[in-house]
Design brief:
One of its GO terms (molecular function) is inositol 2-dehydrogenase (NAD+) activity. By secondary structure, the chain is α/β, with parallel strands linked by helices. Helices cover 37% and strands 27% of the residues. The protein folds into 2 domains: 117 residues, Rossmann fold; 184 residues, Dihydrodipicolinate Reductase, domain 2 (2-Layer Sandwich), CATH 3.30.360.
């Protein structure tokens, strides 16, 4: 399958390097308005550099294009690709507004091309394993969740991140990973409450999600952390706790609750027996999460099967992020049943 990459910044480079090593995939071009960036990435990946998207479509004839541009440009270039009959893999968030997302969906359907949104967190081994354990009921019913995602401010490298309309800030661009993950595990959302503080090259947010089934998730996101990028999460259920931290050697650990006398009488479990935590140790990855995500998307395009992260999932994550932005702006919680999206990033 012939693939191309639009946008040669950080994520464009990640997509291009993954495609360059995937089997049965030919990287036919990379494109960026900054020609030097395109040439540098093309040389690194053994492909052709373009400075105009139209030229890459005409000359490269891709079957699929990865759109790795500022969020405000997602709709425009998705429509261009779809009208050229090219399938689209678009970096998250899906778009700047709900209306743009709807347009992207309608145009792609009309042109019979697939539109897939890249929420990569679900493809990281620790996140995949935690989700599997929770769905298996290992910690029982989740009650309280904490997630943290922090790192340097990307606006120091690419100025468009400093523009709220282009990036949506730390909530829309970074925390949306954890929003999507929580929605995939905890069900229907009742309300969103957010607090946010911004300074030059610092964007910090704390968001509380309350779910209909009773769980509460506290999400922390930060651009401007004076250290390496890192993530952490902890799920506390009525039968145990599971946590993962990118900065520790034991990447996933489960601590089950002490077995009660009732459990012993109904299951035969021995309350005196010590339960050994399940540990998944860190190790170098021969296949990255991005490799797995893009390979999965290519297989979905080839087979017509439903992706792990659906377009509806991506739209819901964006809606919740916009609700969080509105809450941070107003200082009030947002009831998701009453929330109607407006035309911009706030609302």
């Amino acid at each position: 399958m012939r693939v191309a990459v639009l946008g040669c910044g950080t994520m464009g480079g990640v997509h291009a390097r993954s495609y360059a090593k995937l089997k049965d995939v030919e990287l036919v071009g990379v494109c960026d308005v900054e020609e030097d960036e395109a040439v540098r990435l093309a040389n690194a990946c053994g492909t052709t550099a373009y400075s105009r998207f139209e030229d890459m479509l005409d000359e490269g004839r891709p079957d699929v294009v990865s759109i790795c541009l500022p969020t405000s440009l997602h709709c425009t270039y998705t429509v261009m690709a779809a009208e050229a009959g090219v399938h689209v893999i678009c970096e998250k968030p899906v778009s700047s507004t709900a209306k743009e997302a709807e347009m992207m969906d309608v145009i792609c359907r009309a042109n019979q091309v697939q539109l897939l949104i890249a929420h990569v967190s679900r493809f990281f081994p620790a996140y995949t394993d935690v989700a599997r354990q929770i769905k298996a009921g290992v910690i029982g019913k989740p009650g309280v969740v904490h997630a943290r995602r922090i790192g340097p401010h990307p606006g120091l490298m690419k100025n468009w991140y400093n523009n709220e309309w282009d990036s949506g800030g730390v909530i829309m661009d970074l925390m949306i990973h954890d929003i999507d993950y929580m929605l995939s595990l905890l069900g229907e959302l009742r309300s969103v409450y957010a607090q946010r503080r911004t300074f030059p090259h610092l964007d910090y947010a704390w968001v509380t999600l309350r779910f209909e089934q009773g769980a509460i998730a506290n999400l922390e996101g930060m651009w401007g952390y004076p250290g390496p990028f890192q993530t952490a999460m902890e799920f506390a259920g009525d039968r145990g706790v599971i946590h993962a931290n990118s900065e520790v050697a034991k990447s996933v650990m489960i601590h089950r609750a002490v077995v009660s006398a009732e459990d012993m009488s109904t299951t035969g479990a021995d309350p005196s027996r010590e339960l050994t935590p399940i540990v998944l140790r860190k190790s170098p990855e021969f296949e990255t999460a991005y490799d797995r995500e893009l390979s999965h998307f290519i297989q979905c395009i080839q087979s017509g099967s439903q992706p792990e992260v659906t377009f509806q999932d991506a739209c819901m994550a964006s809606k919740v992020a916009r609700a969080a932005l509105e809450s941070a702006h107003s200082g009030l919680p947002v009831n998701m049943l009453d929330f109607e999206e407006k035309g911009g990033l706030i609302g």
